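A reminder from the course coordinator: this example appears on the midterm review sheet, so study it carefully.

Given structure:
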């Protein structure tokens, strides 16, 4: 990994942490503790600019740093849930988008990522996070179907919409030039 790429990923990680800390609000029609934060947007930008694994790295580092500086009221479980939600979104969207970088493919990749993240969180909440919080799993299915899945769909579609509108404007800052372009610039 080049120094330029590493610095750009670090900047995106820092933006993710800042967005997670300073812009968080509850969504209407959902329980108050289920807040939206746009901290996944830098992960999506990294996935589109550098590939899905770079986006996943930004998501992981955002959650790790967020935990270490005490950004989560829910502690390590909250940050683990944040990563468990954001990772499939960024990974699926990045994998789909990397092969054909068009606007339509970007939209399809973010819709697929939102659905994947919602389904992963349904399973993760049922088997991991609800038991860790002491919530009985025999009462969890209606909550997962009626609240968790819709919340994650809304959350990730909001982040996807913002990413769609800002990516083109910030892409040139974060994309690395191809070797061919660098070679042409020096000839």
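Designed residues:
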């Amino acid at each position: 990994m080049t120094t330029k790429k590493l610095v750009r990923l670090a900047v995106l990680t820092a933006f993710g942490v800042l967005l997670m800390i300073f812009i968080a609000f509850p969504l209407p029609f959902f329980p108050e503790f289920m807040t939206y934060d746009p901290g996944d947007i830098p992960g999506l930008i990294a996935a589109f600019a550098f590939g899905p694994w770079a986006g996943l790295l930004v998501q992981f580092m955002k959650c790790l740093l967020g935990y270490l500086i005490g950004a989560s009221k829910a502690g390590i479980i909250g940050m683990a849930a944040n990563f468990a939600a954001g990772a499939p979104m960024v990974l699926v969207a990045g994998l789909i988008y990397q092969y054909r970088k068009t606007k339509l493919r970007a939209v399809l990749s973010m819709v697929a990522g939102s659905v994947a993240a919602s389904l992963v969180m349904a399973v993760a909440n049922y088997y991991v996070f609800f038991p860790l919080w002491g919530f009985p799993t025999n009462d969890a299915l209606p909550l997962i179907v009626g609240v968790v899945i819709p919340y994650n769909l809304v959350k990730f579609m909001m982040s996807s919409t913002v990413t769609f509108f800002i990516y083109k404007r910030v892409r040139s800052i974060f994309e690395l030039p191809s070797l061919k372009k660098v070679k042409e610039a020096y000839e």
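The domain at 3-24+36-175 is CATH 1.10.1760.20 (Arp2/3 complex 21 kDa subunit ARPC3). The chain has a mean pLDDT of 90.
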